[in-house]
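Lecture notes, continued. The same structure-token format from the folding unit now serves as the input rather than the output. Read the line below as a description of shape only.
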């Protein structure tokens, strides 16, 4: 034996049960296979029981075991099939890998979901998306494959995961991502191991992996919103790998565009623009118009931050065209139903703010008014804060103060350091008007009703232009 037991090897147990042989007969066959290969062994039923209990035999013994299983089952059995795949990455690298092997990917994802909220991981730096993005773009879909495990997984299990993801998406939009570690989504992900190890058809497996991809994406976005970038990056990488396991190019395209937005918010705007553009190109012919529009919106935001007005305008125009071309009855996944013209308009305000095009920003703000604040509290609150900044660019103090007050009203009940940073940025930009009536009221509200500023300004400027800010 090479290691102590770490819990039952359910995959090996399922295969031995499928073979229908006794532990004693199984040990005899392994000894015969070893002898045929020129080695003498004396394994007994006791050894078999230990392996089923989780003990790991030596490499040569593992190879004999899968050979015997393959002969008994008349099919190829791999080390991963028998529960001895590539061990999950541990320590600070947890969740950063994007394995080619599907079984290794499952093991790595489960390890990530169970440990991503550890304090030592939360304190590490964010990850690079280059390798995961490159590997997904090169090969975005695994071949469908059925699995034989001890737990039967059916449509009801998959539907439960999709329901949890949908509910979490709504909660994130209304209340922010501040409580992501204690969310129902993370409970689902932490308990996903038995489902991935379960028995399911190829089609059910694809649906399961797609649901887990969306759960991990939602959790990753919430962690980013809460300022936990190290956790967010890991969850998004695992989401992209699950999309590949699902053979779902559309979902992968959506996840990669989400990763683009995360890179944009981290200040890696050139990389973000490339990722969003690549997601759109890969998704053409596979993804629904709303998904492709989401890619173009992410690209527009990244290009605008770099000052590329023509590029941002072209991306935004393509986004608008895709949304206006939606037709009843066409393929239109419910998990991206929030991507509406009003949502596009909300982000377009920030795009034109970044380009210094204040008149266009005002026009888009009027179109964005259709977003209900009760459902999209964070997005509407951020738009109000961005609009306050637009007014300040034009030197219009009174409407800026009105929008800032409204933003505080909305975002005071949202747990989102990312959203709050927009208002702290407004406070910084009010420094030149510090002696004007009404300014100190806004500053007081932001400082007393919201947590202190954390991290860089979302507008790329300092949040400390106001004395003591």
């Amino acid at each position: 034996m090479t290691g102590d037991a770490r819990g039952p090897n359910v995959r090996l147990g399922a295969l031995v049960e499928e073979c229908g042989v006794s532990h004693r007969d199984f040990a005899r066959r392994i000894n015969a296979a070893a002898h045929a290969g020129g080695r003498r062994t004396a394994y007994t039923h006791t050894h078999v029981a230990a392996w089923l209990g989780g003990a790991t035999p030596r490499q040569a013994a593992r190879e004999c075991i899968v050979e015997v299983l393959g002969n008994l089952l008349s099919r190829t059995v791999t080390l991963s099939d028998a529960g001895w795949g590539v061990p999950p990455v541990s320590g600070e690298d947890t969740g950063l890998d994007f394995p080619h092997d599907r079984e290794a990917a499952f093991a790595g994802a489960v390890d990530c979901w169970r440990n991503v909220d550890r304090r030592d991981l939360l304190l590490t730096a964010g990850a690079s998306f280059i390798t995961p993005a490159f590997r997904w773009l090169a090969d975005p879909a695994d071949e469908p494959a059925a699995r034989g495990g001890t737990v039967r997984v059916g449509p009801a299990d998959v539907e439960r995961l999709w329901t949890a993801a949908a509910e979490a998406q709504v909660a994130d939009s209304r209340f922010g991502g501040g409580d992501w570690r204690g969310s129902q989504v993370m409970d689902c992900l932490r308990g996903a191991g038995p489902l991935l190890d379960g028995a399911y058809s190829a089609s059910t497996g694809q649906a399961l992996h797609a649901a887990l991809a969306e759960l991990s994406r939602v959790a990753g976005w919430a962690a980013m919103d809460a300022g936990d970038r190290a956790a967010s990056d890991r969850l998004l990488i695992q989401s992209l790998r699950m999309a590949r396991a699902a053979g779902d190019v559309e979902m992968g395209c959506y996840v990669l565009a989400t990763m683009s937005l995360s890179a944009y918010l981290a200040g890696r705007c050139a990389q973000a623009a490339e990722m969003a553009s690549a997601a759109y190109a890969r998704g053409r012919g596979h993804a629904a118009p709303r998904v492709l529009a989401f890619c173009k919106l992410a690209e527009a935001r990244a290009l605008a931050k770099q000052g590329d007005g023509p590029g941002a305008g072209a991306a935004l125009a393509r986004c608008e065209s895709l949304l206006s071309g939606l037709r009843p009855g066409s393929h239109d996944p419910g998990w991206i139903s929030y991507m509406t013209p009003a949502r596009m308009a909300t982000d377009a305000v920030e795009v034109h703010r970044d380009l210094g095009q204040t008149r266009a920003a005002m026009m888009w703000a009027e179109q964005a008014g259709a977003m209900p604040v009760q459902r999209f509290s964070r997005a509407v609150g951020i738009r109000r804060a961005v609009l306050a900044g637009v007014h300040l660019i034009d030197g219009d103090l009174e409407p800026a103060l009105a929008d800032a007050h409204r933003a505080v009203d909305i975002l005071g009940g949202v747990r989102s350091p990312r959203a709050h940073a927009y208002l702290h940025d407004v406070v910084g930009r009010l420094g030149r008007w510090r002696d004007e009536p009404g300014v100190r009221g806004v500053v007081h509200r932001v400082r007393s009703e919201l947590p202190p500023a954390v991290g860089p300004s979302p507008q790329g400027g300092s949040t400390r232009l106001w004395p003591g800010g």
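Point for the exam: The chain has 22 helices and no strands.
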